[in-house]
Amino acid sequence: MQKRLTVALLAAVFTVPAFAATPTAPRAVIADPPRDAAHPARNRQVLILSHGDGTNALFMLAPGAGPKPTMVLLHGLPGNEQNLDLAQAVRRAGWNVLTLHYRGSWGSPGRFSLAGAGEDVDAAMAFLHQPDTVAQFGIDPQRIVIAGHSMGGFFAARHAAAHGGVAGVVLLDPWNVGATGKDVAAHPETRQDAIADMGDDFGNSLAGTDASRLMAEVERHAQDWDLVDMAPALARVPVLVVAAEHGNAAQVAPLAAALKAQRGARVQAVTLPSDHAFADRRIGLAGITVDWLAARRPRTAPK
User: Fold this and answer.
1) Which one of 56, 79, 133, 204 has the lowest number of neighbouring Cβ atoms within 10 Å?
2) Virtual CA dihedral for 243, 182, 79, 294, nearest 10 degrees?
3) Is there a contact between 228 and 250 (Cβ–Cβ < 8 Å)?
4) Quick one: which of 19, 13, 16 has its CA closest to 285?
């Protein structure tokens, strides 16, 4: 449903690094670390309480002793691309990674809605700061990064803009929900195509909703869910924006430009010549992300 940007506009906003499975890629992307026998990497299932329901979540815990920096990694709509390869690379770089399924998605109880997913993200961030959680899972609460892909990127940006309290934000080809709502309002003849495009890969992943209901929610929030309007608050923390040339680049470019325009902004914006799922640039995506995270954790990240 997005319109393609011209090559000139993309070049003005983004730079394109080239990562591959070569010695130039970060080691955590292409090589396993030695096993830490005393404090090995491990996975722990957790249930995060959100409005009375326990959302399914997986905590991928990094090896080594002591508190770790932690990334929350949010999937998109519906979340067929979970980015677990990225999560593994981030863990190999020394970070805990928390992934979750919003209420009503992928077996989590409840009925899915966009607003509900945003509430679940807030609940997950609150969970990470609880003293019992910090102690049990070895979290450094001063070094929590929130990341998201597509719809997850929207909610990562929205949470950081509204609440702060994060060490950084990673936006992977984020969906600007408000911009989509405004575009459909301006071109109502595209509404049915937009609904079909949204729901073409839902399968059985979402409970209690469908693409028509979600599009109605998008339209209701066209004015208050525009990421460009959130740029002044979002730019208060370091931000990595990775766009997909054949995905949401047309929506991402205005957001990247708005972030860079903020005084004192610490924004890295890149694009990859791939589709919305970064299907053929997984190593490149991991390399960009791990390199950016190294600046958030300079003391102990593996070389």
Assistant:
1) 204
2) 30
3) no
4) 19
**In this structure, what are the phi and psi dihedrals at residue 157, rounded to the nearest 5 degrees?**
-65, -45
Which residue ranges make up each domain of the chain?
7-32+39-294
| pLDDT 10s digits, 52-106 | 999 999 999 999 998 999 999 999 999 999 999 999 999 999 999 999 999 999 9
Among 138, 149, 169, 137, which residue's Cα sits nearest to residue 233?
169
**Is CATH 3.40.640.10 correct for 7-32+39-294?**
no
User: What does the pLDDT look like over 124-169, one tens digit per residue?
Assistant: 999 999 999 999 999 999 999 999 999 999 999 999 999 989 999 9
DSSP string spanning 23-35?
Answer: TTS-HHHH-PPPP
| In contact, 233 and 258? CB cutoff 8 Å | no
